[in-house]
Write a structure and sequence with these properties.
This protein is an alpha+beta fold and about 280 residues long. It has 14 helices and 5 strands. Helix content is about 50%, strand content about 10%.
Length: about 280
């Protein structure tokens, strides 16, 4: 059976899950959990990744992340590989720690962000390891509610902005969402074996994008973009916001510039660039 294609592009958001080999525990004690979070923090910084939620369970973990640059595969190899090495050295074991490839689901942020975060932080409750999500130490939940000091494993500012621009209101909305009574396993049914979780419009947009991409894959990127204009030339003489946004879209989709590259050229944060390139 063919492996699912890794869907990677600038500004993509993913629900990531990776399980222990043979469902073995990947965390044996507090030091293992802490080491994983240390490695996770390093990977977030190195690969410019935004973390919206996480939960570490004894034999698997869940992450909800955004990649401003199309680097999911390399960042996940680094995360699982570096942690495996540390785990094996500490416990004096050999071999694979994780079961095959990690699972990645491309998420429609506009329609499914709340549900994915809720699903992730309620994992320990669903597994009947605790009664309430705040009783589980190894998730982002207590950082969101203010019970734990913020860490660099969660981009608290951007996570709050999903719920409201005002931090106090955002925290209130977050807690309300987590406490909602929803049909059991609702998101489980939605997820299944999917690689994309989103509206019909979102899925169609992703399919069209990769159909275009597949046509150009036979030509190496270095050749496809060998004669592309530089960013300074693309934005030269642009004075109004409409023209700027049009050229941002073109720079990303037509010329292959990453969100970070465009953001640096215009002195605009890549999250703003992401909203612009994903509007059409």
């Amino acid at each position: 059976m063919a492996r699912p294609i890794r869907v990677q592009f600038s500004g993509a958001t993913y629900h990531i899950m990776s399980r222990g080999n043979g469902r073995q525990n990947i965390f044996k004690d507090k030091k293992d959990y802490e080491k994983f979070l240390d490695v996770y923090e390093e990977v977030l910084k190195k690969y410019n990744i935004i973390s919206y939620a996480y939960c570490l369970m004894p034999n698997h973990y869940h992450l909800f992340i955004e990649t401003p640059d199309p680097n999911l595969s390399i960042s996940m190899r680094q995360l699982n590989g570096k942690y495996t090495q540390a785990f094996n050295i500490r416990h004096k074991v050999l071999g694979h720690l994780f079961q095959g490839r990690y699972k990645s689901i491309l998420v429609d942020m506009d329609n499914y962000a709340y549900e994915v975060i809720r699903y992730i932080v309620l994992n320990p409750v669903k597994a009947k390891m605790v009664k309430y999500p705040g009783q589980w130490k190894w998730s982002s939940h207590n950082e969101m509610t203010g019970k734990l000091k913020p860490t660099k494993c969660l981009d608290l500012k951007r996570a709050f902005k999903l719920y409201d621009n005002n931090q106090d209101k955002a925290k209130e909305n977050y807690i309300k969402n987590i406490n909602l009574k929803m049909e059991e396993d609702l998101l489980d049914k939605e997820l299944g074996n999917k690689t994309i979780l989103g509206s019909i419009e979102f899925i169609d947009k992703i399919k069209k994008y990769f159909k275009q991409q597949s046509k150009s894959k036979e030509i190496p990127k270095i050749e496809r973009f060998a004669h592309r204009p530089d960013l300074e030339e693309i934005f030269k003489g642009i004075k109004d916001k409409v023209g700027r946004n049009k050229n941002i879209y073109k720079a990303h989709w037509d010329y292959g510039y990453t969100l970070s590259e465009i953001g640096r050229a215009l002195n605009i944060h890549y999250t703003t660039i992401s909203k612009i390139v994903n509007k059409k």
